[in-house]
Structures
1.
Amino acid sequence: MITFMNNSDSEEEPCNERTSLMSAESPPVPSYQDGLQASEAGEAQAHRKRRAGSSRGPNNMTGGEMSGSGVRMRESALENEEEELTLKYGAKHVIMLFVPVTLCMIVVVATIKSVRFYTEKNGQLIYTPFSEDTPSVGQRLLNSVLNTIIMISVIIVMTVFLVLLYKYRCYKFIHGWLILSSLMLLFLFTYIYLGEVLKTYNVAMDYPTLFIVIWNFGAVGMICIHWKGPLQLQQAYLIMISALMALVFIKYLPEWSAWVILGAISIYDLMAVLCPKGPLRMLVETAQERNEPIFPALIYSSAMMWTVGMAKPDTAARGPSQQTWDAAEDGREHLQSPSHAESQMSEMRSPVPTRHVTSLEELEEEERGVKLGLGDFIFYSVLVGKAAATASGDWNTTLACFVAILIGLCLTLLLLAVFKKALPALPISITFGLIFYFSTDNLVRPFMDTLASHQLYI
Amino acid sequence: PAFGLFIFTIARDPLRIIILIAGAFFWLVSLLLSSLIWFIAVKASDPQDERLQKGLLIFGVMFSVLLQEAFRFLYYKLLRKAIEGLVALSEDGCSPISIQQMAYVAGVGFGLMSGAFSMINLLADALGPGTVGIHGDSQLYFLTSAFMTMVLIFLHTFWGILFFHGCEHRRWWEIAAVVIMHLTVSGSSFCNPLYVGSLVPSYLLMAGAAAWAYVLSGGSAQNLRRFLLCKC
């Protein structure tokens, strides 16, 4: 989900200030517990600063925060200016999102193409118990649909669980959960990944060196993501984590199930963010009522200040949880980003899409900037990675899916600027990606192959 | 070279990158539709008949060229609307990007996408072991493919400029010239593997289109001389 984030001040801020700022802010963080990772929750709520220019009454904003931008609240007078600035800087934000998404996809595709491990079928997750090795097409289809249903229900259960925990203020539990899952993600998966890469390139590495490398990587990652650190490093870590998670999905999800799951997840995302009774919406509303930021969900923020993110714990479930958040940010004060200075007058609401994927970590951004949930990253990369792994047209299909996803992201950001509400980032991009994947694989590939064999050019 | 164009001229400005990606997307959609048509035609026809297949292929290529130009036109329309929106939004009443820059970027977008689709599988195969032209085909396959792709990318760029200029000033003959040039270049590739028949005309056409686009963009021989002299 891409939303504008309103960063509500953390506990420290006086209520009125927070309320004036914007109500919505806490993007709901659906944490799906994917058994794999435990997410850490470190929220640095304190970092949020919300100076609300106008107290429009954030109270009026309800849970729609997620989808709605708290921005509205803020400025009525400045709205036009903001809008202009928003749209004007819109292109910049789009690029700020393009780059990490592209990087993540490049990492995933490069790994898929070179390391054999991730394309071998070594079993499935317990969340997709039905195997796809059946002889008949109908049976296979049925199995994949059943797998999808199980996975989606796991995700829904996780999200509702998280919402309940949040409602009953079991913050410590959530924090612990997130910390645990990001711990597991950073150490275990990196170890496996590094092992496979070294195997592929036939590079020998002894255990002590490996231990030191992984220890350093993991420790710095934990600090960066959950506490403070340079922006670039944090972004890099988030990208790496998303890539790792996507690789795990690509490996362990059977083929047809993966495609059906991708489709179902986008529908779920659409509903969870926009329906009034959706869990994500409820989470946002609750957070707004309490005027506190929602757990830093796994969000990638392109703006400078970011608070500790909470990772969603994925414990045993592999369901990716996606949550979209709307966080409206007050762009008044930005701590460190020079860009904030520009947007001083307008509150830049950065759309913050948040998708939580089981082991995603959230970053909260205060300042203007665009936030995109890590779950979104992961699913985009899963789509492109699957295209690279399984398509026989190889690079053409991968390239087509890549462009389709970027265009979907563009459109979503455009809608975000227009509607100023939190929006689900998945549906448009995934739909485009799926359409392009299937059509390129089946239609364009024979055409291009024939053209290339005759060396004709169109 | 096309990638160099991208880095030096486009990568700085985010708006241009978006236009570029959108241009690539439009080309992709046009390719999709044309391959859909071709696919249907092939499925509906007899797979054994060689001549028919070849004829269908030629038909597919021509149709694809026409579709590409149609999509270029659609993209032009979209960009016109976008410019109006940008002008309305900007503070000082003028658009941050001009229609000519957009034309250039759109052309590069089309070109990059078409070049990528033409070359990338070749490049991937080129990494692996093998011998070029083992079945009696030309040994220069990779080289000529590379040159042809490059000329095509540049041509798309120039065609973008010419096309948009024609649409702006309502000079239909410019648009028609672009379409005819495109058809010619694709048609000349039918001469392959007789490379002289395809590469040479393409390069000549490219030089012509380059000069024309340069003149249209406001350049002149004088500018060119000043530019070259200043450098030294």
2.
Amino acid sequence: MSLFGATTGFGTGGTGVFGSTTTDSHNPMKDVEVTSPPDDSISCLAFSPPTMPGNFLIGGSWANDVRCWEVQDNGQTVPKAQQMHTGPVLDACWSDDGSKVFTASCDKTAKMWDLNSNQAMQIAQHDGPIKAIHWIKAPNYSCVMTGSWDKTLKFWDTRSPNPMMSLQMPERCYCADVVYPMAVVATAERGLIVYQLENQPSEFRRIDSPLKHQHRCVAIFKDKQNKPTGFALGSIEGRVAIHYINPPNPAKDNFTFKCHRSNGTNTTTPQDIYAVNAISFHPVHGTLATVGSDGRFSFWDKDARTKLKTSEQLDQPITACCFNHNGNIFAYASSYDWSKGHEYYNPQKKNYIFLRNAAEELKPRNKK
Amino acid sequence: MGRKKKKQMKPWCWYCNRDFDDEKILIQHQKAKHFKCHICHKKLYTGPGLAIHCMQVHKETIDSVPNAIPGRTDIELEIYGMEGIPEKDMQERRRTLEQKSQESQKKKSNMDDSDEDDDDDEAGPSVQQVAAVPPQAGYAAAMVQPGIPPVAGGPGMPPGGYQGMPPMMPGVPPMMHGMPPAMHGMPPGMMPMGGMMPPMMPGMPGIPPGLYESSGMPPHMAPRPGMPHMGPAPTAGAIPSRPTAPVAQPVVTKPLFPSAAQAQQSASGAAALNSHSTAASSEPPKATFPAYTQPSVSSSTSSSSNPSSSTVAKPPATVTSKPATLTTTSATSKLIHPDEDISLEEMKSQLPRYQRLLPRPGQAHAAAPPVAAVGGIMPPQPGIPPQQPGMRHPMHGQYGAPPQGMPSYMPGGIPPYGQGPPMVPPYQGGPPMGMRPPVMSPAGRY
């Protein structure tokens, strides 16, 4: 992608890898480093929607901030703005017109950040940290959905302090995804609930988890007609389940695959199994990317049921990832995710966000 | 042959026609001789598995099974132990064995008396009934009856047993002719015939074998699911006798096994992939299903099966049981995740440095983690007036005003000062904003 050249952005950032002769294991894939990365683990990444010209990336972190960068066509990243919460930011998303960014934090609030005025105001309140936040744009309503560790899923009209709807969940929300008219929430204790959003959000179905371990991330995928038809669910056990909502033949269509595990070719050493931290679908090809605690990302084709690529191993886990609106850029964040507990946390270690050209590598494989 | 009717036919290798005492040994032989990768020496579980491994890992194609006799080199035929052997080859084998045994029986008929007696005893009443019946018919009957019980006893599928019979039958007449002298020959004769019965009945719609497969194939599930996906055509074509192989799950549900029904649900390919290797070898097919239903995390291991490649497991499985979501460390795998039932974020957020930042009731804490100069104040916000704009939170006060306080926050101090919207708190003493600047650390600017 680009020259790392003179960065106009403020902050130190980007002295990068490009200059060094040896390949640091912090960026073995030699991808573009985003300048001015956050100072603590990055919890979420999101690119601006197609309604906005250009590519803007927002990233929330455990340093309580959410930052916005402009990603230029030559690959350079320019830090643009930042907002703070009073607690670590766990999730962030864009509104459909790209003018607002919604951020969710451990401080039990969610905020709406108006980028034009660079003002943020609180729009939601929970009794516990908010883990997931998504913007819903329906023909007859628009709202923000927040899922929290207080076991509730609330829907907010940003103009009112009270939620327009509050749904009780069996357990704490661990991850969620929304593609109108479908929403999926995965909770603690392997709970999995699908909601339908037409008219107003309501619980559609509770699904028995296809996975046997803690749910960690979920992403909805669409069919050829661009309608949401199923989701990919990742667990802490290096496994992703592809699950269709109404498949013609569930036994055949739904499946799971293993990923993010250390090589066990040498069977004498135990195989290390890592958590899948995030899953993202390519907006054009429908192929998916998974990132894990092992510090690798992988691209998969769920229809051909094959792996397309696995990256080299970074020296830190990869905690978040996302594609931009046209699928040309894949962003992934390298920071510690606590998978090895407290002892391995090194506050001095730098956190990174990398950008990779995703146009070619995620093309689906032709089915034989 | 032996006195005991072990599966009525000694396990033999389809690829090289060698005999073995035990199916386990047969499988080890196949893995080492026929399913071993010539490049990296990795042992796979089936021919197609080997082909896929070579393709995926080494980018090489292989078109014949190593060390196989001519005519038996088909790489696409999925054979595991005694399963998957095409019917006609089975019959051929039986015939060859019969011929061999006929010769040896004629020679040894005297010595067989004792064996015969033993076998008669084992076969029980059915054999004696047979004796009363005209030899040929009786023989056939005898073939059938003793044949069935052991089979039924095994996988427990009497109807299945019958299905296996027809293929056998053609084999019977020839036997019979040769056999009249051979009621004695029965035991040895039984073997090849009975050979049809044992769990690997290629003719079966694949129920017990289906079971067996799913259970017995764990190690292969890994390459195998890869196979159908990678090369659906070849495998599908190549496994005529086991049409259900890749789709073992749906077939498995039909049956007779109540546990199988559960198994199908829980058969998350995961389970399929893994626990098998142990389950299959140690337990009869029936019991392996319960193994399926158990979440046994050990199932997550299968380190032996293509861990580096993406193993795509078919079975969808809705897990019927909800096991505790705890990590497991087994001999072959280790979950890199703290052993608790909460998420990584929950764990991390419990650290004091993150806790301190939570807003105190009624007050807003504008706190910065001790580390960074987080006072990331964007130029547009001079940090002073800010309390108003954006302060307009509909909620009562939990707005953490970013601009203020951040830099002023002393690590370790958890001042109750927080500024609430009404601001003020004593700490500032003075116009809420006004006081700040002095305290602000320059580093606060970005």
3.
Amino acid sequence: MMRFMLLFSRQGKLRLQKWYTATAERDKKKMVRELMQIVLARKPKMCSFLEWRDLKIVYKRYASLYFCCAIEEQDNELITLEVIHRFVELLDKYFGSDTDQPRALPSGCQHLLRHRVPKAIIFVIPFYVFPTFTNGRIHCSSYQKCRRTRALYAN
Amino acid sequence: MHTHKHKPIHKYTHTHTHTAMSPSVPLQEMIRAIRSARTQCEERGVIQRECAAIRAQFRQSDNGGRSHNLAKLLYVHMLGYPAHFGQMECVRMIASPRYSEKRVGYLGAMMLLDEKQDASLLITNSIKNDLSHSSQHVQSLALCTLACMGSAEMCRDLAPEIDRLLRASNSYIKKKAALCAVHIVRKVQELGELFAPAARSLLSEKNHGVLHGAVVLITELCERSPETLERFRKAVPDLVQIMKGLVISGYSPEHDVAGISDPFLQVRILRLLRILGHNSEAASDAMNDLLAQVATNTDSTKTVGNAVLYETVLTVLDIKSESGLRVLAVNILGRFLLNNDRNIRYIAMISLQKIVGTDHNAVQRHRGTIVDCLKDQDASVKRRALDLSLALVSASNIRSMMKELLIFLSSCPPELRAQAASGIFNAAERYAPSQRWHIDTILHVLTTAGGDVRDETVPNLIQLITTASELHCYTVHKLYRALLTDISQQPLVQVACWCIGEYGDLLLRGDCQETEPVQVSEDDVLDALETVLQSHMSSPATRGFALTATMKLSTRITDNVDRIRSIVSIYGSCIDVELQQRAVEYNALFKKYDHMRAAVLERMPVIEKNSPGHTNGESTGEPVREIQPAKVKQGELPQQPANQVCDLLDLLGGSEETLQPSPAVGGTAAGLTTNTASTAGGDLLDLLGGFEPVPLAPAPTVPVYDKDGVTLTLSCEKQSDSGLTVTLTASNSTDSDISSFTLQAAVPKSVQLHMKAPSGDCLPARGAAKVTQMVVLNNPNKVNLKMRVRISYSSQGSAFQDTVQIDSFPGLSAAH
């Protein structure tokens, strides 16, 4: 099960945090600080997995955004990489430009960085994408659903 | 398709009405203001102003802008600022009939309320009502929120509702309800029973979302309750069927990810199959074919295919699969090891680590690739490769593996050094093909990573060196050379000093078959030791070693004893208390006890190692050993070889505990080991109890030694089947008195020896009195009994020493 997911920029600014277990504020801050330090220190060609405390950390960098997930010992790291990728694709589909063609990934992320963070995070992600990730598991694997719901919200 | 609108999303589905919007500051503007703040301070100012405005707005009951204000507050919360004053507002909004407000209220609840907050209980009733709402969107809001932050009480209250929704007709709701049930089961384990039947029926759904949720729920139930696990084993055929459908079916645009149909669901099902098949033959049989099919048919060119393969491998290795399938799984891992993608190599090694104990041979086949990974750039990969390489070392590949490991040690990252060094030591100890190889390996590690080895390496190495008696010359030469090159690695320097002290005579002799000969003069050796003594890099312990080594050399060299004397006396005023004490005692040894110096500083006996079971290539089977160190002192010998001399000198100073209460043993410093044996003898006699010599008819006495007027006779009595008491009687037929008369005895390894206290240590002239000493022997293995006795005494101011071997004992039949 995924314990938490963090998004932070190359400069060390936290953009998004979602915790799937009840944790005290103080501990959350400490963990975020520690992890950001560790992940930002990694060199480009290094492995996407690392061990931290009793969890496994899976991270991937898209443009200048780091997507970082903490999973448990028995979880599958490779599929978590795919989950992160799916998340990024969804964000891109949602916040890409006006055309509905799948765009190159960085554009969605750039949007995320520049303008759409508030909207995305406040309105869309918790209601659509995080349900996709409810309880730390991805459970909606359909793109069609994505489009339909987007239509729902867009009106 | 729909165009993306750049407006705050306040739109709803056609079933709801628009509300009039009149926000004080639109969200967009606030965001713009925050983003345009150039400093942290400015940003804080903007946010404080906004929060004040929002708080004011909350206090009014302004209908229109409530959701908007809360939205602004949530954005501020996301940036990390405190937002707890919005909690009650969330509660109020959730209770509102308007969808727009409900939505933001639930969102706020998920972000601001967690089970630790008191306010969270207040929304229970709203959630309950909304779970039965007519609109599926409202229901889903409630379900999401409960699944996100529901506490144990809330879950208990609402569980029956969730169970009802699991059977709803709407798959959108069923999916959300399944995930909510997962959360409930995690919070309140007993409620799992409630959901089991519904979960079972959900497996026949076609909708992947619902199916996924059902599989997750069943996994959670099975992980927590063994009875439920039993029941769900019957569902294995259904799961196999679903999985087959996913693997064989053609392209489905709805679920395709890089050629694999719904890999997320596949991985979930494989995980559940793993749990169900673990420890169950029947269930494992049912899934054998499927696993083979997935393993062979899945396309492994992209990460997603490898993810499914990885999960398959994990499942195969964890259930009771047949051997062909296991081989297939290990081969997949082998293929992963050759993959270009570093991530794949990493997880391959993690999985191999888990099975290296059970499927050792299968993993051995990939040893070459694993060893290559030691040279990878990435530290995580290196760590995994090190763990795996150490696990793969065996007697047959020890030489080649050690070469690789030593190369790795010289270039490995600092955080792995200690682990690598201790792993190498363990491997060397278990599989060393020869003692020389073993010593070479340890020396190599000490020179490359000396600072990271554990403390007990030094005594272990010393013990090893003493057992390899043929290699003493070679070892001391090598260590001397290492010492000349570098004196910063403390463990190495300590061992080198100890060896030079012990075997200095071999070093000075110059010839050595194993290495090229090099001429070493006494001055060179003393120079080296003095450098160590004076260097700021040497730790106090190291300097202690060096001082003792210098002292020991006084009996092993001939010309420069004066130099040693001066070194020792200089350190008599050293600031370090330990060094000072040693130096003072050694000085005393030079001045007052010079006659004992040779005996005190002679070669050490081979040190017994406490722990059994290490296989060195060469056997060390000498028939008779030196004085058997008693078990009492055994622990100390390896750790403090230098301090033993100090203990000895402490006895000179008069600490009486270790001495037997019987008389006249005060002056016999050389008999420390005798005393040790006596002490141990005392203890062991107490333990064994029945070895008190029983007075019998006087046994026959046999003369065993007669030289220079000193005679020694022996008589023995059998006490039991394996026990024997030997009495040695000495007398002096010369014209001068003999003082400091001591006897030391040695017996074959398996025989136990206890020397009792002698009756005295003076032999007056012309046989006026005799000295007797009793020796108790225990020979449980009934080996051929031999005894070597060393006689030492002083007569007319000079010290004498002699040894006699006793091969036959009167009163003992030849068979013993």
4.
Amino acid sequence: RYVRQLQRLQLLFSPTAADARGAREFVEEAAQDFARQHPDVVLYVSPHSGPGPAPMLRAEYLNGTVRDELIASKTSEEILQLATKLANQSGLDIIRIRKPFHTDNPSVQGQWHPLTNKPSILTVQGPRLQPQ
Amino acid sequence: MVVLSAARWVRSRLSDRFWRVQEVLKYARHFRGRKNRCYALAVRSVRRAFVRSTKARREKKRFLRALWITRIEAASLEHGLKYPAFVSNLLKSQVELNRKVLADLAIYEPKTFKSLAALAQRRRQEGFLAALGDGKEPEGIFSRIVHHH
């Protein structure tokens, strides 16, 4: 079954700053619908009064990664798109994947070492061989 | 009012020069010498590094294929077969494994590789018998594989 990797979304904005207008509109209009559509994500709306840092959308995932996105001077639709994008992501780092495959047990028959195809007399230590 | 801000814009000075410079320098941090610190030298080096990395993607395929061939050759020599004999006889027995898979088998699954080498050896012998023996003996088992194309 699908488990949504996004744990919580924190909407940090100021109720008076000019660049937080989109954030305020989002909170007024689309935040409730978003919260209803994504029932397993917790949405925190925390306005901080007075001049403060830029308006941010902080996403925390189940594996502990915290992703901050600036929402200064963004419209309400753009913030909604951003929120849905974060909700559909997992918390893995967004870097280049070196290989598209991975195994914990690469070898079933035992990895090759220089003595695999040599006669076993070189490796086996038995009772001292009698000279014949 | 566009008229006022055009005059202001013409007179404005750059305020985020630091971040524009850092965008380039972050790709030069592991370079040697002054090109990892000085922007003018770094711009040239970073551009050359990117060009080389795009061109190298074609070389990488050739390099890896050569590496796999070296490994398969070493592994098949351990079992008494040379690389051309091994690969051609595997193809004749309709075992269409590519060199990447063969190299991985040779490293991680040595017994499977040994059985593949034995198969190729047997097919080789049957090929010799079919070419030189001529007649009385029945055709080989592995030479009778039907090739559907």
